[in-house]
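ok so for the tutorial part 2 we go from a plain amino acid sequence to predicted C-alpha cells. step 1 is just haveing the sequence, like this:
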Amino acid sequence: MKWWRVAVVSGVVAGLVILAGLSLSRIYNGPLLLRLVAGAAVASVLLSSLLRRAPAWLVAPVSVGAMSGYALLAVRVSAAAAGVAGDLGTLTGDAARNAVPRLLTALIPVEPQPDTVLAPVVLAWLAGFAGAELAARAARPALALLPPTALYAGALVLVGPNAPVVLWQPLAFVALAAAALLAGSAPPPTTLSGIARGERAVLRLRMATGVWAGVAGVLAVVVLAAPNVAGRVGRPPADPRRYVEPPSLDVLDQNPLIRLSGWAAEPDQRLFQVAVLRGVDRSDPTTQASATPSAQGPPSTEEVVPPEEGPPAEQPPESADQGAYDTRLRLAILADWDGVTWHVDADYRGAGRVLPAMLPPPGRAAEGEVAPPLTIEERITIEGLRGRLMPAVAAPARVDGVRVAYDRSTGTLLHPAPLEAGVTYTVTSVNSSVDVNLLPVADVPSGPTVARYLAVGDTVPPDLSHLADQVSQGDSSPYLRALALEAFLADHYVFAADAPSGHAYPNLRFFLFDDPRAGGRRGTSEQFASAFAALGRLMGLPTRVVVGFRTPAGGGAVTAREALAWPEVLFDEVGWVAFDPMPDADIPPQPLEDQFLPKPTPPTEPPQSVEPPQDPTLPPSSPSAVAAPPGPGGPDARVIAGGVGGGLLTLLVMLLIAVALLRYLVRRRRLNQGSPPQRVLGAWGEVLDALALAGTPPPAHLAAAEVADHAATVVEGRPARRPRPAAPRLHDLAERVNSAGFAGPTGEPDEISAHAATAQAVEYSRALRHRLPWWRRLLWPVDPRPLRRRHR
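step 2 — the prediction. this is what the C-alpha cells look like for a chain of 792 residues:
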C-alpha cells in the first residue's frame, strides 16, 4: 500500500481513538481526560508510523515502553490536577490495581484522577498502536478500524444513560471509517487481458458470487436484528455501574447511633478539629432559628475567624436549632428501621473534588429557596474519630485534601480507608434554605419511594401505637402532629448522659413508660431521636434519624460531648425538616398523664382451684370420695414421651458418630502407620472388612490367593448400575500378604510394595461399595462389624 494511503488510514485511526475519548469525556469533569486520550492516540500512531521500516519484533517492545512512560505522565498530571497526594510509585500502583473497579463505581461526573484516567489512556494507546500496525505493516485498512471501533463501543457502554445523546459523534465516526476504507482500498484492475476466456469467466463468477453473498449476508443481519434494534431505539441504555457493588460500610458505621453511648461515657474525648474558613458565625444569635413558621431572615454570610479553643460548657446536648439553614455537621443518615435497629443504606460512589448536587427528596421536584444558598467552607482535622464516615455540613459541593465516596441521596461522605489521626480535608457546602412558611399547610408525600421512611417493623407494641394515637389526637396537619410529638417528648422526659444505649422496641418501651425510679423516662439523644422517629411513623409521618455533631462557635475542637442525634420529617415541596425533642436542662419534666400510659392487662395467672366439698356421709377422717384433679404443674405424658424419644434419638446419633470415628481411626492406623509389612497386612484387613460389609465374608479356612479369587467373584457378581472403574485384581496383594507374614526378614515388603498394597485395597473397597444397594452404601461408614471382627 502506498505511503499516502498508509498515512490517511493511520490518521483516521488516531481520529477514531480521539472520538472514543471525546465520547467518554462526556461523563468526566473537565477536558483533562480528552487531552490525555488524544495524546495517547497521536503518540502511539506516530510512533508506529515512524518505526514502519523497523523489524516487527522491535516495534512492540518500544511501543510498550513508550506507553509506560506516557502512563506515568498521565498519572502525574492527573494527580496534580486533582490534588491527590502521594509519590509517583504509590499512585501508579494504586491506580493499576483499582483502575477498573473505581472507574465503574465512580460518581458522575468522574473526576480525572490517576485511577480513573489510567485505564482509558492505556486502552487508547493500545487501540492506536494496533490500528496503525494493521494499516502500515499488514496493509489491512478494514482490520485497522477494529481496535478503535471496539474502544468507541466500550466508551458508549460505559457512558450508558449518564450523558445526553450526541448525534454528530457517531456520524463523524462513520464518515472517518468510510474515508479510511476508500483510501486504503487498492484500485481494481482496468483490464483482464492476458487471461484466458475460461479463467476470466470463472473469475467474474467468483467475484459476482462473493459480492452477492456479502449483500445477502448483510440483508440477513438487517432482517434479523432490525426488530430488536428498532425496539431499543427509544429506551435508555443500560448502565454497567448497577452491576458493580459500590464501596460498603464497615460494621462500625452500619449504625452510628449506638456509638452515642460510648461517646457519652467519655465526653472529653477530642474527635476532630473544625476551622471555619467561610460561612456563618454561629455565635451570632441572629443566625439561629427554630423550625417554625416564625423563623425569618437569612443568616449572616460574613467571613469569620476561629476563636481560641476552650473547654465546652457542661450541659446536655441541645438539638441543633433548625432555621432557614442547617449548619450542623452530619455524620450519617439512618433511614431504615425494622423495629430492632436503625441502619445506613446509602449508595456511596467514588467522587472527585467537585461533587454533584444532592438528589431532591421524594415530594420535592425543585429546591425552591427563600434566600440565596449559604456557602460554608470548613477545614476538618481528624483526631479521635474512627470509622470511615466523614463529618460535613449538609449538601457538600466540594472536598479537597482526600479522596471520598459520596451518596447523592443523603449528602454524606465516606473515606476509602478507616479514619486516622491527622487526616485533614476541606469541605465546601452549599446549604439550601427551607421555606418554613409552607410547613403549617404542607402535606407528607406517599408512594413507593416513601415507603422505606414509614416502615415500622413486623411487630409493633400496642403500647406505642396507643401512645402515638393519644399524642396526635386532634391534630390533622402533619406539621402540627410533629410539633405535638416534639413537645410531648421535651415536656415529659429527662436527658441523662449515663442512660443505657438501645433503641429497639423494648428499649423504647422502657424509655417511654417505665417508672423513673427504675431508670425509665431518661435517655440520651439516641432514645429521644429514635422515639420521635418511631412514633412519627406510627402517626403517618415519613421520618429518619441523623447522627452528627454540634460545633463550637466559629470553630474549634469537637469533643464526644457534642455528638447527638436528631429526627427529621419529610414534607411535600419543603423537604426534610429537623425537629428538637430534647428537653430544656433547667425545666423539670411533667408527670406522664394517665391517657398516655399503657392500658392495664388482665391477669394471666390461672385462678386458684376450689377444693370440692366433702361428702357429709363419710366420716371426717376418711378421704373424700371425689378425686382431686391433677395439679397444673403435673407432668404431661406427651412431654415425657417426647423427652424420652429425643434422648434416644440423640443417643443413637452419638453412637453412630462414635462408630464412624472409630472406623476412621482404625483405617488410618492400618494404612498410614507402622512398618511396610504392617501396612500390607492392614490393607489386607481393609479388603476383608469390605467383603464383610458387602455381606460376603470369605470362609476362614481360605488361603490368601483363594480369598483374592473370592473377592473377584464377588465383584463380578454385582454389576455396577452406572459406569464405574473396574475393581483391581488382588492376587498381587495376596502375594505381598504371604511375603509379609511368612517370608522372614529378607522377603519383607518395602515402602513401594506397601504403598501399592494400600492403593489396591482402597480401590477395591470403593469399587465394591459402588456395586451395593443404596441402603448398604448408606450404612457402610457406621457398620460396627469391622470393629467386632478386628476385636476377635
